[in-house]
Amino acid sequence: xxxxxxxxxxxxxxxxxxxxxxxxxxxxxxxxxxxxxxxxxxxxxxxxxxxxxxxxxxxxxxxxxxxxxxxxxxxxxxxxxxxxxxxxxxxxxxxxxxxxxxxxxxxxxxxxxxxxxxxxxxxxxxxxxxxxxxxxxxxxxxxxxxxxxxxxxxxxxxxxxxxxxxxxxxxxxxxxxxxxxxxxxxxxxxxxxxxxxxxxxxxxxxxxxxxxxxxxxxxxxxxxxxxxxxxxxxxxxxxxxxxxxxxxxxxxxxxxxxxxxxxxxxxxxxxxxxxxxxxxxxxxxxxxxxxxxxxxxxxxxxxxxxxxxxxxxxxxxxxxxxxxxxxxxxxxxxxxxxxxxxxxxxxxxxxxxxxxxxxxxxxxxxxxxxxxxxxxxxxxxxxxxxxxxxxxxxxxxxxxxxxxxxxxxxxxxxxxxxxxxxxxxxxxxxxxxxxxxxxxxxxxxxxxxxxxxxxxxxxxxxxxxxxxxxxxxxxxxxxxxxxxxxxxxxxxxxxxxxxxxxxxxxxxxxxxxxxxxxxxxxxxxxxxxxxxxxxxxxxxxxxxxx
Length: 546
What we know:
Helix content is 28%, strand content 26%. By secondary structure, it is an alpha/beta fold.
């Protein structure tokens, strides 16, 4: 068996960790290669949930987890059923705002998260709620003093200080916080009791054009069926174009630029636009079941405390054919790499012997459809989230040469930074900041459903500063992958790949898990972070764990 032996000297962390035994990592390159090669083969048909590709993937992972020496993670079962619902809207009426009518697709898009045969929004008062943020730890509440019951919220995308040139400000300057994500804005509108929520699109603030919104928010929409038929959601969530928003403000005798500026200042008060909103459409619903795959290595001393590893096993299935007619999106990098890494890491941890805490290996479904498997697990955790210490997410691990750095998404948010710093020092590597903090990537992968419920999670991506060629080489390789392979048929296994970089990354993930697994500390979110209060509330509900 080909193996990359990487001796680990896991030292005591000065600030965040207690002690950690010296452990040797024997991560099998052969196991990793076999996993990526198999999962991304044409036989697996792109691993689309609900297809034969899923059946092959789940069977392979169960076999590999068992062979690695894990135990079934879900009360004696290797899988967790994930009920999914797909809702497709049709027969859209115009969006009527006062006397104005706006065409579906060109001017607005909307969907319902509710599992009902039709959606009717009728004469709902339109209220401009600025950025739609309720952040007590930052002294900001756009909904203060407003009863949103039965009303429609008109919301700006991103954070109030997104246009800043720095990372300083109430909402971290140009770095997007969770409050800037459209997912948060719809969730908060529902919590406020709104009948509907409409986000104003703007290219720079959203970081993509209206064409992306139109294509993403029309056609079938898939959701994790977490119960209640979506009755806790608004009747409708959607977007309006910037021109549509401008026309709505003008009809209310308001200058849109002035209102946006006002909404960016502390103390902004929501304002009614004095116009009722109406629209309607029909919904067709399809239900099906997919599966998460879960294995566990029980801890030697504190098995009721858990370190989580996540990676999504799914990809896009069959997709637009390339010039040669290949219509299988194999997803070798995205994310056969992360899924195979779960197996290789599990095997290495079993061989090294269980740490004090339990290690959980969670391969989730339906990431490409909106983090649905991870969302279902977080809403229905097999291992209580208040007893989940922290975790590592692996999504699209670059298979290229060694690097001097790693790319850190979500740095500066929690005490996990201390663990990462020590692990990288032991490797002789450094942390590079997120090159695009304004894009909010930390909020867009499978760790995030756990994060928004308070669990600190690493999201550390492959570095770009190549040992051979520096940043220029790394950026060129990343650009080539994005343009030639990402979400296309060319993301295929290549026997000529250089595996030294991904083995560096797996060694890092191994180190982090052993550090967290052998300490008795519980890393916290930093003071003022948007997830600190959520974690504190979660911890207060149990005598176990944090």
